[in-house]
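Re: that chain you flagged

S.,

Sorry for the slow reply, it's been a week of failed gels. I finally had a moment to sit down with the sequence you sent. For the record, here it is as I used it:
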Amino acid sequence: MEKITIKELIEFRKKGSEKTKRNFALKLKTRKAKVKDSEDKTGGNYWSISNSSIYNTFKRGKDEFYDEKIDEVTDKYSKTTSLKDKTMYERNLDILRSFKEFDILSLRPDNIINFETVEKTSKILTLQHLPIYINPNLVFLFEENGIETIGGIILVPQLNGFTKSELGLFCEILYKFLFEKYSGEYTISQHYCIAIDTYNASSITFLEMINSRMPSILNTTLLEIKSL
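Prediction finished late last night. Pasting the C-alpha cells below so you have them in one place:
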C-alpha cells in the first residue's frame, strides 16, 4: 500500500458524502506505491522560500533570516513578469512578514545538544495497520532537568492554513513518531512536540492538546478509512 500523508487524512475528513468518502478511502487503500514521496509533491517547493527562513531561525536560534529573505524575494517579485511567480512570491512574503512578529524562538529549548537525522525509511508510521507518512522538519535532543529529551517540529504550509483540530492531527502524529523512534533511549517532550501552521503563523504543542482536552480526530479518521 502506498503511504498516506497527513494532508490526505484531512482531505478525507472534508469529503461531504458517504460515497465520496468511500471512493477516496478505496483509492488510499488500493493505490500502488510510488517511487517519489507523495508528501514532497504537495507544494513543498512552492513554500520553500518561507519554510527555509523559519527552519533556519529555529535551528540556529537566531532571529536574523527574515529581513534578508524578504529583500531577496521582493527583488525577485519586482523582476518577474509571470503572474504565477508573483503570486507565489507574494504569499511567501506574507508568511515571512508574519513570522517577523511570531516569536518562534520561544518554542525552542535553549539547551539543544544535537539535531537528529531522520532517515527517509523511518518516516512511515504504522497506525491502525495503515502506513502514515510524516516528515518532521527538525528532531532535536536537549537536556531538561538533567535528562536527555527528544523534541521535534513540523512546519505545515498550505493556502488558507488549517483548523486547530487539523493542526492537532499533525502534532499528535509527530508525537507518536517521536515516541516510536526514540522512547527506547530518551524521554519524549510533550511541550517541545510542535506543529506550526506557517500560513496562519500559529502553533500547537502536544502538551497544549492534552491540557485543553482537545478531542483527538486521529483514531476516528483512521478507523473510518479502514471500515469503508
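What I noticed first: Residues 37-43 have pLDDT under 50 and may be disordered.

Talk soon,
D.
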